[in-house]
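BUG: 3D viewer hangs when loading the predicted structure for this chain

Environment: internal workstation, default settings.
Expected: structure renders.
Actual: progress bar stalls at 90%.

Input used:
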Amino acid sequence: MKKRNTKIILFASILVIVIGVGISTSNVFKFVKGYTLYKIHKAYAVSPKPDKPVEKNQEPKALYPVRPKTGENFGELIIPKLDATLPIFEGANENELAKGVGHYGGSVLPGEKDNSVLAGHRDTVFRKLGEVGKGDLLIVRTSAGEFTYKVSKVRIVDKDDRTVIVPRPTATLTVSTCYPFYFIGQAPKRYILVGYLLSSKLAMK
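Structure tokens produced before the viewer hung:
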């Protein structure tokens, strides 16, 4: 009887060991299979294509790749209020002002950010400029396009006032002429129109 019990216990022990090894082997197999499939999937998975990178500090295209030379006619000033179209020349010396409106070379060109300054004689091109005031339009056409400014301020300053040509944070057009308009001799003042850029129609390149 004792021998028989011993055999039963031995058989049960072997059976438990076999079952345990079977279960363990099955789990190990499943783990190895899963891990292998994961690695294969990771190796051959197609990563999504990243968006096209944006170039940092990309400079906008220049409105004027070539700057006009002194004395060159590079555009025209249109004053709808006066039904006038006036030629613009680079430079604001007597040679340029004798031919039309002069562009002060130390300022930006029309359409560009900052202060673009134009000047003209009160007894020629700007004879009727006093009729133009706040709310009126000033249009400049150049090789870069058409730029429309709206007069936001009218100033009368001394002839030596340098605030006329100071830089501006936005695209601005400043138009200057001598004042009073009917003064005999060298006029002591300047009549100033200051306009902000209202709209732009860039030329097709």
